């Protein structure tokens, strides 16, 4: 029997509609293996880049391994040939790396910007105290967290200490199998009747996030007070040369202990801390490392402090990008400030950041017509912000159309999305700070479940498509 001819309505649906379908089902033959292989490198990066300093160090090592050289080692006025690979780091927390294009710099750049900081607990400047038979550290949380998620959890201590003798000491405790871990204790349910009557925000205050760090007293002198506290100071002094004053000149961060892992029986997902936004940092990094001879100068910008408003001299709100482009222009024959402004005005950027994926348990917080789904491809967001697009960048129709064409031409599987229902909340990215300089910019990155939690969930196929999307854009 001959097959029935497809109806006119079904033909129109295919021609006019935008069907939603899993990216796994749309992959070209042989691509699934590439997706899983790419995820292995990504998990390794997440496992060793638990802080912003560690992420920049890992990016720097990768760049040097691919032949990138410091912009500071290239004299002003010498010129950069097309295809030259360079980087510029800033205070161990920011990095710009790129490849010189064949087009003049005044015609603009292609930039992908991501942030490498993540929500965590920081030690306070004077953290150590003793109470009720335990030594404790006081913390101050960094970024937007649900405080209850950080209790009864294995934590590792990462950071740097500037000792009073001038030495800089790096600390990582809790990642190796033989290391001790730390934890914020929680009230047992048997005594939590009053606590559990409170709402989630009130049940635990920021000053309740105190870390258990020891219980052995200093031996031999009965009359001493705070002997457990003294014993902890002695241990830290023996291992790192630390005295109590050195806590004030330290950056010590508590992060979930342990490596990134496959999640799910089919291993299609990645479960790990810090995927907001190191998933975009890693995929953008890999895209520029593998790029060859772009038409426009292609740059990847990795910044700090996004989770607290992009403030400070290492955030996207700083003048680092302006400074870096001035340095770059001086080496490409475009040294005047006027030309740097022209470069920015003619440039295009992707703010590479994650968005919220639909959680089947909390579906009612999403506009299902405009939501993003795990496993459906990288997400292109026209705007972020909250309640009336406040504090957002709102990309133009022309630039959204350009990105769509780039992605479709390069067979990038993508979807559109937004963070959630209009009045449910919201959040910002570095897009508005890039737009401040005059760049066309839109947000683009994978969707996550459990964003800002100690363990976030991403789809391997979305991670791979982010890498493909950023590569295609940088080459455009």
Automatic annotation (TrEMBL):
| Gene that produces this protein | apeA
Lineage, top-rank taxon, reads Bacteria
Task: Give the record's GO biological process terms.
Answer: proteolysis
Cofactor(s) the record lists: Zn(2+)
Q: Which InterPro entries does this UniProt record tie to the protein?
A: Peptidase_M18, Peptidase_M18_dom2
Keyword line: Aminopeptidase, Hydrolase, Metal-binding, Metalloprotease, Protease, Zinc
Query: Which EC number(s) are documented for this chain?
Result: 3.4.11.-
Q: Family per UniProt? A: Belongs to the peptidase M18 family.
Q: Offer a single GO CC term for the protein.
A: cytoplasm
Name the Gene Ontology molecular function terms of this record: aminopeptidase activity; metallopeptidase activity; zinc ion binding
The protein's name: M18 family aminopeptidase
């Amino acid at each position: 029997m001959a097959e029935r001819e497809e109806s006119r309505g079904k033909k129109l649906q295919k021609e006019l509609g935008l069907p939603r379908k899993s990216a796994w089902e749309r992959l070209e033959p042989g691509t699934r293996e590439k997706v899983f292989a790419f995820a292995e490198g990504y998990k390794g990066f997440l496992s060793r880049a638990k802080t912003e300093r560690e992420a920049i160090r890992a990016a720097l090592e990768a760049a040097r391994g691919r032949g990138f050289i410091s912009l500071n080692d290239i004299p002003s006025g010498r010129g950069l040939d097309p295809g030259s690979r360079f980087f510029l780091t800033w205070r161990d927390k920011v990095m710009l790396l790129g490849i010189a294009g064949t087009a003049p710099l005044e015609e603009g750049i292609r930039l992908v910007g991501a942030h490498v900081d993540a929500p965590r607990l920081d030690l306070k400047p004077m953290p150590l105290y003793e109470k009720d038979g335990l030594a404790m550290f006081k913390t101050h949380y960094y970024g937007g967290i649900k405080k209850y998620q950080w209790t009864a959890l294995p934590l590792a201590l990462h950071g740097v200490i500037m000792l009073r003798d001038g030495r800089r000491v790096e600390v990582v405790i809790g990642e190796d199998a033989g290391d001790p871990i730390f934890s914020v204790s929680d009230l047992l349910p048997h005594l939590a009747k009053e606590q559990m009557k409170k709402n989630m925000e009130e049940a635990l205050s920021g000053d309740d996030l105190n870390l258990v760090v020891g219980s052995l007293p200093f031996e031999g002198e009965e009359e001493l007070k705070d002997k457990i506290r003294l014993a902890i100071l002695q241990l830290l002094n023996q291992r790192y040369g630390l005295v109590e004053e050195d806590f004030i000149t330290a950056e010590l961060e508590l992060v979930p202990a342990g490596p990134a892992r496959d999640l799910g029986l089919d291993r299609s997902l990645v479960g790990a801390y810090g995927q907001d936004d190191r998933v975009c940092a890693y995929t953008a990094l890999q895209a520029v490392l593998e790029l060859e001879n772009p038409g426009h100068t292609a740059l990847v910008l990795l910044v700090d402090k996004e989770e607290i408003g992009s403030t400070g001299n290492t955030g996207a709100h700083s003048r680092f990008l302006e400074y870096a482009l001035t340095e770059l222009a001086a080496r490409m024959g475009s040294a005047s400030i006027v030309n740097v402004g022209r470069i920015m005005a003619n440039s295009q950027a992707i703010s590479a950041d994650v968005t919220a994926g639909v959680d089947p348990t909390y579906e009612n917080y999403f506009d299902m017509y405009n939501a993003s789904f795990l496993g459906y491809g990288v997400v292109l967001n026209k705007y972020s912000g909250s309640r009336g697009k406040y504090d957002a960048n709102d990309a133009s129709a022309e630039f959204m159309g350009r990105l769509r064409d780039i992605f479709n031409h390069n067979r990038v599987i993508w979807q559109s999305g937004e963070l959630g229902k209009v009045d449910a909340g919201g959040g910002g990215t570095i897009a508005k700070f890039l737009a401040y300089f005059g760049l066309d910019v839109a947000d683009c990155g994978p969707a996550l479940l459990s964003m800002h939690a100690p363990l976030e969930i991403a789809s391997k196929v979305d991670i791979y498509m982010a890498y493909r999307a950023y590569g295609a854009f940088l080459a455009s």
